[in-house]
């Protein structure tokens, strides 16, 4: 299948989830996340969920990290829709978060963190394939961001649905993930 078709299908699959089903999948994904080895991670980049689009609830992960891994610095993306870039802001006392025009909770001010500090990125996606490639909302924000990361930064997708067979129309900019966490599995690529 091609990205455009995959996007439509997976937006539909999300919309068809009841609130209860969505909640259960988020809880299961959170349980899988807790099995992930974070021993080498000092700084983690985490998207804040667009709840009305039924994205994985990363607030569960964020709150757990704060209690169980206080040594890990948490940073959030701020998007620039003009050039499709993202900047990262630390979760500290100077952070201010507001919903942007796309209903994404985002930093509006705070301490900016250079991309080379990030050890692991949790990546939003609509669908992913068995080779670790992903389909997002189609603006290339994450592909651009991942291209700027250190070569040893880990890319870890979060998905409420399992892997699909193959994305047919990959391009030169598509960056494969190292792993993807779903409600039932931890895929390693
Ligand atoms: N929570 C979260 N934050 C994120 C992402 C994400 O997927 N989830 N992104 C992941 O990259 C970036 C934001 N990407 C986005 C890309 C498109 C649209 C959007 O609403 N697009 C419209 C079409 C707009 C148009 O074509 O002009 C739509 O889908 O209806 C929203 C966010 C950065 N932050
Ligand atoms: N590093 C890059 N430099 C220039 N263009 C890029 C880069 N990365 C992606 N693009 C372009 O951005 C567009 C959208 O990419 P794609 O369809 O893969 O987005 P996506 O991964 O679904 O979205 P997102 O990353 O925002 O969730 C494509 O035309 C792609 O070629």
TrEMBL record:
The keyword Transmembrane appears for this protein: no
Cofactor (UniProt): Mg(2+)
Enzyme class: ligase
EC assignment: 6.3.3.2
Family annotation (Pfam families): 5-FTHF_cyc-lig
InterPro entries per UniProt: FTHF_cligase, FTHF_cligase-like_sf, NagB/RpiA_transferase-like
Protein name per UniProt: 5-formyltetrahydrofolate cyclo-ligase
């Amino acid at each position: 299948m091609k990205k455009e078709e995959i996007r439509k299908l997976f937006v539909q699959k999300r919309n068809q989830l009841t609130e209860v089903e969505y909640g259960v999948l988020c809880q299961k994904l959170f349980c899988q996340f807790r099995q992930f080895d974070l021993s080498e991670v000092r700084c983690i980049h985490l998207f804040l969920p667009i709840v009305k689009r039924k994205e994985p609830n990363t607030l569960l992960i964020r709150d757990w990290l704060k209690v169980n891994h206080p040594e890990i610095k948490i940073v959030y993306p701020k998007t620039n829709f003009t050039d499709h870039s993202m900047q990262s802001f630390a979760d500290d006392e100077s952070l201010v978060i507001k919903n942007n025009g796309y209903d994404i909770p985002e930093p509006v001010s705070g301490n900016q963190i250079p991309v080379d500090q990030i050890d692991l990125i949790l990546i939003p996606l609509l669908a992913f394939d068995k080779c670790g490639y992903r389909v997002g909302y189609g603006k290339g924000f994450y592909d651009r961001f991942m291209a700027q990361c250190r070569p040893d930064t880990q890319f870890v997708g979060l998905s409420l649905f399992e892997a699909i067979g193959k994305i047919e129309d990959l391009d030169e900019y598509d960056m494969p993930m190292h792993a993807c966490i779903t409600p039932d599995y931890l895929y390693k690529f």
